[in-house]
Amino acid sequence: MPGTSHSSAYPQLSRRTALGIGLGLGSAAALALPAQSASAASAVGGSRLAASGVQVRRAAGAPKLPKLAAKAWLVADNDTGEVLAAYNAHRPLPPASTLKMLFADTVLPEFDRDLEHKVTAADLAGIPYGSSLVGIQAGTTYTVHQLWQGVFLRSGNDAVHVLASMYGGVDKTVAAMQARAADLRAGDTHVVSPDGFDHKGQVSSAYDLTLFARAGLKNSDFRGYCGTEVADFPAGGGKTFQIQNTDRLLTGQGVSAYRGLIGVKNGYTSHAGNTFTGAATRDGRTLLVTVMHPKSGYEAVYEETAALLDWAFSAGRSARAVGELVTPLSERPAASPSDSASPAAGAPAAVSSSGGGDGWAFGGSAAVAAVAGGGLWALRRRVRPTGRRRA
User: Fold this and answer.
1) Catalytic: 256?
2) Does residue 175 contact residue 21 with C-beta atoms inside 8 Å?
């Protein structure tokens, strides 16, 4: 019946998700393991991403990196997967709403965008106090498309919890998100809740968040939602109200809109501070930047993202790789070699441009690679192409 959802109307879970949940015997607790320490997980993508200090390889005459105050950041080429520069790439930090990118990577492919769902009070249970909300009301019918607009534009935890309820509940969603993170080889990420709110032990890293964004942008719906500036949202009784994207580099609210920006997701909580992953395209080249926890200023996360994008676009190909964004397990050929980094990714720290006047300290010891083990190899298959205390 229109306006009412039935479990039989929902598509079956993807094989990747079903296998991932099976690894945890259907239990969120089984998969919600503590994030790996930097010494264990940080060699994913190349040993230099495990080293302390800024990692960059500038050719002679190339522009200098901007001076940044964030606790961690990373800039990469979306198309080639090359990491062009990074700082504390694998440092586990609270992700705030940028974790919603992983939520979307996991749940978005499971429902038809035109599917309708009449929200119940149970769907809205358990939303953390102080959450950002889009304004979903029990008793009102929404399409999946509208719920995702609520997630991406307003970072609505109410929309997240409704979609998680449709998926099978928060615990099942958390388990599937952790399995998806393992498939993406995002070993710094520990999921406690699908909404990214402040929960003890919930962490991710600049490297992992960039993996989530890159995976999401392969999905046309994900790409469309994160790049939407405004939308009309149901208010009940046939009425609507307008919602605006909280991504300030997209809308230009408070800071200058960034030319060529295509998304993806911002976040803020009082504990996490500001986090942001952005993607922009210029002259046929798409770059990804993640910035986590600038020391001060609500706009700093956007200003530092824009500065890194400007640097990478102006540097062009003169910025050589210091690492790579790894391929998900489900997209690797069955006969693929082990998770060793490429020669460029694992180049010794001695080749960094420490004498180039960037004003940063370079170097540090490399860490040991951690390979996703056991039954996670069963996840291999081709995936379908397809704002104050808030999270």
Assistant:
1) no
2) yes
pLDDT tens by residue, the chain, 391 residues: 333 343 334 545 454 444 444 443 333 333 334 444 444 444 799 999 999 899 999 888 889 999 999 999 999 999 999 999 999 999 999 999 999 999 999 999 999 999 999 999 999 999 999 899 999 999 999 999 999 999 999 999 999 999 999 999 999 999 999 999 999 999 999 999 999 999 999 999 999 999 999 999 999 999 999 999 999 999 988 899 999 999 999 999 999 999 999 999 999 998 889 999 999 999 999 999 999 999 877 799 999 999 999 999 999 888 999 999 999 999 988 755 555 444 344 333 333 333 333 433 333 323 323 333 333 333 333 333 333 344 5
Sign of the CA dihedral with 180 first, then 185, 186, and 192 last: positive
Chain mean position to CA 203: 12
Q: What is the DSSP string of 4-55?
A: ---GGGSPPPPHHHHHHHHHTTT-HHHH-PPPPPHHHHTTTT-GGGGSSS-E
pTM of the predicted protein model: 0.80
Nearest to 80 by CA among 357, 348, 321: 321
Q: Which of 5, 47, 100, 265 is catalytic?
A: 100
Residue that the structure tokens 């504990």 belong to? 271
Catalytic pick from 47, 131, 132, 155?
Answer: 155
Q: Which of 5, 14, 47, 97 is catalytic?
A: 97
Distance between CA 175 and CA 213 in Å, rounded? 19
Distance (Å, rounded) from C-alpha 108 to C-alpha 215? 12
- Residue 97 annotated as catalytic: yes
User: Distance (Å, rounded) from C-alpha 134 to C-alpha 159?
Assistant: 7
Catalytic status, residue 37: no
Nearest to 205 by CA among 382, 367, 65: 367
What per-residue string of b and e applies to 170-190 under the rule 16 or more CB within 10 Å gives b? bbbbbbbbbbbbbbbbbbbbb
